[in-house]
Specification:
With about 110 residues, this protein is mainly β. It has a single domain, classed as STM4215-like. About 10% of the residues lie in helices and about 50% in strands. Pfam families: Phage_tail_terminator_5.
């Protein structure tokens, strides 16, 4: 798993996931409540030349882990998955094939 902002060097022909937070604007109500929204994207990176089956299968697994309306909570912070996981188009590089999976999220905080 490659995390945003953390150094990562994959092995040759290794399948891996790369995670990205794509925040949208933060709203506030009366200055004391914040609504955080955005997109969480996971890129599934596989070796090029083997078709999209492996990457699409992993995207299906991700979709089962993050169903719409799933609530994820740690201490007092809670995030809601707003939309079903949507696969993106396959993108082929010189040695890799990437299929993204993304969903919208929301968190309310005081």
């Amino acid at each position: 798993m490659a995390y945003q902002g953390v150094s990562f060097t994959p092995e040759a022909d290794e399948t891996y996931l790369a995670a990205f937070m794509l925040p949208a604007g933060t709203d506030t109500l009366s200055g004391d409540h914040r609504v955080y929204t955005g997109l969480f994207q996971i890129n599934v990176v596989t070796s090029a030349g083997n078709g999209t089956g492996e990457a699409e299968g992993i995207v299906d697994d991700i979709a089962s882990l993050f169903p719409a309306y799933l609530r994820l909570k740690q201490d007092a912070f809670e995030v809601l998955v707003l939309t079903p996981v949507e696969p993106g188009p396959p993108i082929t590089g010189d040695t890799t094939l990437t299929v993204s999976a993304s969903f919208q999220y929301r968190s309310d905080a005081n």
